[in-house]
Amino acid sequence: MTIPLLEFSVIATVRNERESIATFIDSLLMQTFAPAEIIIVDGVSTDGTLDILQGYARDGRITLISQDCNISQGRNLGIAAARHEWIAATDAGCRAEPTWLEQLARTAAGPDTPDVIAGNYAFETHNDFELASVLATDPPDREDSEQARYYPSSRSIAFRRSAWNAVAGYPEWLYAAEDTLYNIRLRELGLRFAFAREARVWWRPRQSLRGLYRQYFNYARGNGRIGLALYGYWSNIKTHGFFAAFALLGMLHPAFLLAAAAVGFSHVHRNLWPQARHAGLCTGRSVMIWKTLWLMEVVRIAGMYGFLAGRADRRKDPVFIREQAAWMGRDSLEVEPTVFGWQARMLIAASLAAAAFLAWQRV
Known about the structure:
Blueprint: E1 8-14, H1 21-29, E2 37-42, H2 49-58, E3 63-66, H3 71-81, E4 86-91, E5 94-96, H4 100-108, E6 116-123, H5 128-137, H6 146-150, E7 156-160, H7 161-166, H8 178-188, E8 193-203, H9 209-226, H10 230-249, H11 255-283, H12 287-316, H13 319-328, H14 342-362
Parallel strand pairs: 1-2, 1-4, 2-3, 6-8
Antiparallel strand pairs: 4-7, 5-8, 6-7
Helix pairs in contact: 5-12, 9-12, 10-11, 10-12, 10-14, 11-12
């Protein structure tokens, strides 16, 4: 099939990626379907990244913008400077497959005449921790789900400039979950999505437990700020609240420890075990079940605390509510659910009070 006669502007944001920036830029320059231009927005890197980018810019291989900005602002700066209708976006820290842009272009010229093309991504893992973190966080059926088509990461996406204009760009007031909100707004406006399964970029997951925790804390904080997945987060908080309550009451009577164990078992069985079991099956190593199980729980705890931080942000700083209402016509994606009935609130309050009383008596 002939490559379509379309011109794509490729834009990307970067900050402090000195170790990987040359690999990233070279992967864009070696595409089988050459981008009409490559625009890199550097958020004022301080580790030598900017010096490397300036070398590429002097040779005319990229257009460089260096300005203090967050990710959304950087993407909007790059898109505003682009000369073409079709925009392909990715992120530094990735490595685009040689056919990445070609696959996006073929999908753009396909019969569905899309406005938005969800690209794909894959993981480059170097050790068991990184592999387990991928198995713990990436759903096994992601490529065959609506998530792949309608919720693309902006590390691999293409869209018409008219689509970007329709939603007034990426939400610059939001640090994390900005591409999720962008996708939701594109879909709300009735724009047409297509999925380019073979348009892949590779990226390496976080390399430490602390990095993984912070990543999912920030994701959840962004979701808390925009009011996304409220029922799931509150249900997770309720489950962990019951577990903590029964565990604390176990200091008064061992029977409560059985209740805590029952809550914990139910949580693992319903929410964690199926994906952890899949990790063992797909790797052929039973140890990956337990590594994945552990990291899934770490990610859930990170999400729980990140979500609460995001909800607190909305209360402390009205800019989140005000800007979201101005950007999309309402100040939250979902209505706050009532997941804590009076029985749950009474139980948790009573257990905390009992534990506090017991601790006071032991002093």
